[in-house]
User: What shape does this take?
Amino acid sequence: KNSVNGKQMIWNSKMIAQLEWSGDIINREQKQLVADKIAAKVKNGQVISAGSGSTAFLALFSIADRIRKEQLDVKFIPTSIEIAMTCSSLGLQLTSLLENKPDWLFDGADEVGPNNQLIKGRGGAMFQEKLLMNSCAVNYIIVDPSKIVDKLGSKFPVPIEVFPQSILYVESQLLALGAASLNLRPAKGKDGPVITENGNLIVDAWFDTIDSNFELKIKSITGVIESGLFQQQKFEVLM
Ligand code: 5RP
Assistant: This one.
């Protein structure tokens, strides 16, 4: 596709080559350990969905290292522009859900609560993260021990992606669901709120109690595109 008469066209981009993780990576050593564990799972010929966040970022570097050394043929379906650009900077092959079904997925999490329930979406990519996790039969959540919590929602709010015109309606419905506080996520590097990759807003919602049906309750509000609450999905947690 990206070729003329069979000759591969390659961008010569300094901007992509110089990409780094924005800011410090908290608990880097522990994240690196689990990144190496996930890299050991890669097999030649696979299509892998790459999650977002700093742990997934480190994992991609470890995987790229194996691909280079062992000359593996592996394709990636990214869960965000951020991780697509990391794939590009590492020279990894990208594909999409329209072309391939991923063999497996790896992704990070903000909280891992009792009964394998997650909060994700600090990076704002929860819609594609959930779409890809639901599309994969095998999913690995890669976390450092700081992510394990006794009660879901104790350290992180539930991020909710909202269609902009429905923001006031969604606010009223989230309050009716018992939200203790709701914050429109502000952007950094742009005035006003965060606008997601899908052109929507993010509401960070704190709840005192999150029951086991909450993902479905939030999703049933008209105007909610997706939330970062993962209660219905099947995955294995690696540390
Ligand atoms: C992004 C996510 C990340 O996977 C989650 O925030 C974990 O990030 P990190 O690995 O940097 O701690 O859900 O939307």
The mean pLDDT is 95.
